[in-house]
Amino acid sequence: MRFIDIILDVESISLVKDNRPMVKRAINATLQRVHQAHNFPYYLQDKGVIQTTAEYTDGTVTAVNGDATITGILTAFTSAMAGRKFRKGGETAFYRIKSVTSGTELELETPYYGTTDATGETFSIFKDEFRLAPDVDQYKFLRQIENGEILFSTHPANFDSAYPAPSFMGNPNIEVMVGTQMDTYDTGSVSGSSGSKTLTGVGTGWTSVEGLGQGSQLTIGDYVYMVKSVDSDTQITLYDKLAQAVTAGTSYSILLNNLRVQLLNIPDEAKNLYYRYFRIPQPLVNDYDIPDMPMGWDWILPYGALSQMFLQKGDLSKSYQITEARFLAELDKMKLKVGSFTPDRIYHKKPMQRRRNVSLGQEPSGYRWYYCG
After folding, report:
1. Rounded distance between C-alpha atoms, residue 359 and residue 71, angstroms
2. 372 has a pLDDT exceeding 50
3. Domain ranges of the chain
4. pLDDT by residue (tens digit) across 254-280?
5. Which of 259, 248, 190, 182 is nearest to 219 (CA)?
6. Which class is domain 183-257?
């Protein structure tokens, strides 16, 4: 069933003819309700990868108490270090890096409150928090392929109680969910033709942006688009068409509010960590889009959408007693049919055992033995 078919069905039954944006929102909201109702195997993915980063310790630094500027000596700081953590010498405290001014200077998010040194000191720049894919709804175990290990997952409160200032470096063996962070990426500029789904960038470097991918939100002026794929450093494909032409040199912003995990031991070298996850379904945007749900069950979407439309019209009897009840009933059937990873196997007893059960009143008297071959 195509998106336009569902739209027309909902409009025809609800008699809502002049508010298609509301109808579309109701249908997409119903798709989300289906996804949220159960961990359907259909949405399970095994393509999640976290790429850890090597610790950086080259050169020395000078830090002044109360100052957020860190000056490097024989260092090669890069813009990629923004967002990582900085720790000087053998101190316990760490600081987040706000920005990198040059190869020998960086700015911390908060002032440095350690000991002021007259000469250069050793330091460590490390990364122990990582964004997951933007379409992750729930992730499962993180695992190291090289060492054949599953990372132990713990609650943030337990993690902070046990490791208030994490400092152990090495192969990660503990992971903790640390929520989201409203980061943005706006390097470079973009352009595109009206009606096109392709956005071209200049100086954007999109393939190296952690957490950018399918499901990321991209804003140009007053318009918000959803990223379908990152094709190269300078090309992105969107789900929907550009509402108007984007002239060369136009600024943009990408929201990176992905789920994040923190690792311990703190990675000291580049490695890949893999994870399975339940993904968020792709939205219905274009008229000929097919609902992203188990095949053969898209016909239940109109019932959920109609429930919302009748509710908006104030017709509670049709909303709750008819369409909503039908939607929930069919959703329960869907859970039973396609909600398990493997179908349940039913092993029937042998005929003589079934005959014994009939004599004991444990089988209906109308039972036909030839059904149990």
Report:
1. 90
2. no
3. 1-39+293-342, 41-53+128-180+259-281, 60-126, 183-257, 343-373
4. 999 999 999 999 999 999 999 999 999
5. 190
6. mainly beta
Q: How far apart are CA 267 and CA 256, in angstroms?
A: 22
Residue 94 dihedral angles phi and psi, to the nearest 5°? -125, 160
Q: Using CA atoms, how far apart are residues 109 and 243, in angstroms rounded to an integer?
A: 37
CA distance linking residue 167 with residue 62, whole number of Å: 21
Residue whose entry in the numeric block shows the structure tokens 């990629």: 80
First to last CA, the chain: 40
Residue whose entry in the numeric block shows the structure tokens 């274009």? 286
Q: What is the gyration radius of the CA atoms in the chain, in angstroms?
A: 28
Q: Is 158 helix (H, G, I), strand (E, B) or coil?
A: helix
9 three-class SS: helix
Secondary structure class of 23 (helix, strand, coil): helix
Bridge partners for 272 per DSSP: 51
**pLDDT tens digits, one per residue of 212-251:** 999 999 999 999 999 999 999 999 999 989 999 999 999 9
Identify which of 138, 132, 289 has the alpha carbon closest to the alpha carbon of residue 211: 132
Q: Is residue 214 a contact partner of residue 134, using CB atoms and an 8 Å limit?
A: yes
